[in-house]
Amino acid sequence: xxxxxxxxxxxxxxxxxxxxxxxxxxxxxxxxxxxxxxxxxxxxxxxxxxxxxxxxxxxxxxxxxxxxxxxxxxxxxxxxxxxxxxxxxxxxxxxxxxxxxxxxxxxxxxxxxxxxxxxxxx
Length: 122
Description:
Layout: H1 3-17, H2 19-22, E1 27-28, E2 33-34, H3 38-43, H4 51-80, H5 84-98, H6 102-105, H7 108-119
Antiparallel strand pairs: 1-2
Helix pairs in contact: 1-4, 4-5, 5-7
């Protein structure tokens, strides 16, 4: 019954788990040095003024993405069980977890909003 939604959530889980690898454009430091992934942050010279800042940002993105993906998997389990409320609650939490990165990540909030529009009736 929910296979299309489950498919969307699985894609979001995969995307979320790879935020630090696929990345997005972020600028660091007074010179606005662009570092788009954790790999790029780790490749910065050790004496780079923004190395630690960029590494920290991308490690946080990695942790946050994995946390949100864990809740996405809970949403999948709930959907598999036909538990619409459980899925809704899990998806709500994914977009809450994503908030520090949502302007760039654009993964969970659009999915949650789509889910609410589709399944929440007044």
